[in-house]
Write a structure and sequence with these properties.
It is a single chain. Helix 4 packs antiparallel against helix 5, helix 9 runs parallel beside helix 13 and helix 10 runs antiparallel to helix 11. With about 400 residues, the protein is an all-alpha fold. The protein has two domains: about 170 residues, no CATH class; about 190 residues. The longest helix is centred in the last third of the chain and has 30 residues. The C terminus is likely disordered. The protein is about 75% helix and about 0% strand.
């Protein structure tokens, strides 16, 4: 690989590792995406709709991940790459527009936008790296696996109900799972999971940014709830508690993960295995924020009265997902288990059976108290008391 010339579109060694303004601009479309996903949960908190929302989130997340990797490996200041990012951004906007009816009449729009994004990207990257076959092979492998999943994605458009959910679940699982095995491709082998692809400092900053974007959608939901509250006392209190929840998420994330993601704490380059794992653990955290946003909207709209079981699951499950993602990320980076968050998840699950006795606002307060105690423990206790002994090298 070192003997082959570097294509002009590649990021040069020693180039600035911080994200460009265009990358920040690209992330803004995900405020709309997360808002549409959250609104879908507000409309229907059934297990079936939760599964459908998860599939749509996974597809959207895969678009974001591949774009983050695109601007990590390739020169984000090159006009061709910038144009590609803007095309992907518009395609993501179309996917978000289709989200509310993606399992209905807009299935074709969601799938068409999803694959147009990948075709546009690969039509730039594959020809652009032809002078360096090892690098070009990476893009060809990714393109090959999208060819594998195009069948179930398209087939899902022509069926309804459970059949579409099953087909799309398989497709998105293969999309994300193929990266974890290096996209094995006939004639090209696979990308070695120990190879260097990602710039650690750049990728870490991109993950921080997308998490902040998810919090931005949460703030948007709270603000819209307050604007529609008519300043009724109960709903204003619910907005206040929801805002406190956003602050807790922010502080918990940055208190622990800021050190782990800081450029001084990551290697100059990131391996394929750790790079993909980092992206997937952030997916879990962002999923938790999306669920929290939906539950906040429900509680702000009706803070008192009986809490349906679906509401209880969302109010407690959102913070639990967030803590799980943080715990998994910590394990990926340090090979240690962050026990404070494990305990937080256990407590959230343990109090669940008693929650039908409380109104929605009180359940939200309980969830906030668990997050607050988690933050206090992690802030006050020495790091060695929060984590277990290192796990064997993987």
């Amino acid at each position: 690989m070192t003997s082959s010339p570097l294509p002009r579109i590649l990021r040069r060694p020693g180039a600035p590792e911080f994200p460009t303004f265009l990358e920040l601009f690209f992330d803004l479309v995900f405020i709309f995406m997360f808002s549409r996903l959250s609104a879908g949960l507000v409309h229907d908190l059934s297990a079936r709709n939760a599964a459908q929302t998860a599939v749509l989130l996974l597809a959207a997340w895969w678009v974001w991940v591949l774009t983050a990797w695109l601007t990590d490996l390739f020169n984000p200041r090159l006009p061709l790459i910038q144009a590609t990012v803007l095309v992907v951004m518009f395609g993501t906007l179309l996917m978000a527009v289709a989200v509310p009816r993606a399992f209905g009449t807009h299935a074709w729009l969601f799938v068409a936008a999803y694959f147009a994004i990948h075709l546009a990207r690969d039509s730039v990257l594959i020809p652009g790296t032809r002078v360096n076959r090892p690098i070009q092979a990476r893009s060809i492998r990714v393109f090959f696996w999208f060819g594998v999943t195009v069948g179930p994605w398209v087939a899902g458009v022509f069926v309804d109900g459970t059949a579409r959910l099953v087909l799309w679940s398989i497709a998105v699982a293969v999309d994300l799972g193929s990266a974890r095995i290096g996209w094995p491709t006939p004639g090209l082998g696979r990308t070695e999971l120990a190879s260097q692809i990602f710039t650690g400092a750049h990728l870490s900053e991109r993950h921080r940014q997308i998490f902040i974007i998810s919090l931005g959608e949460l703030i948007l939901a709270i603000g819209m709830g307050l604007a529609a509250s008519g300043f009724e006392a109960g709903r204003v209190v619910a907005c206040t508690i929801a805002f406190a929840n956003a602050l807790l998420l922010f502080h918990i994330y940055f208190h622990r993960i800021r050190q782990l993601l800081a450029p001084t704490a990551v290697s100059t380059v990131e391996r394929v295995r750790s790079g993909t794992a980092t992206s997937y653990t952030h997916l879990v955290m962002v999923a938790g924020v999306v669920v929290i946003s939906a539950s906040d909207s429900l509680v702000i709209d009706r803070p008192f009265g009986e809490a349906p079981s679906g509401w209880i699951v969302a109010i407690l499950g959102g913070p639990a997902l967030f803590l799980l993602g943080g715990c998994l990320f910590d394990f990926v980076v340090t090979s240690r288990i962050l026990w404070s968050r494990v305990v937080g998840m256990v407590v959230l699950g343990a109090v669940g059976p008693a929650m039908p006795l409380l109104p929605p606002l009180a359940i939200m307060i309980v969830a906030n108290l668990v997050l607050l105690l988690t933050l206090i423990v992690e802030t006050a206790a020495p790091r060695s008391r929060l984590t277990s002994a290192p796990m064997p090298a993987r």
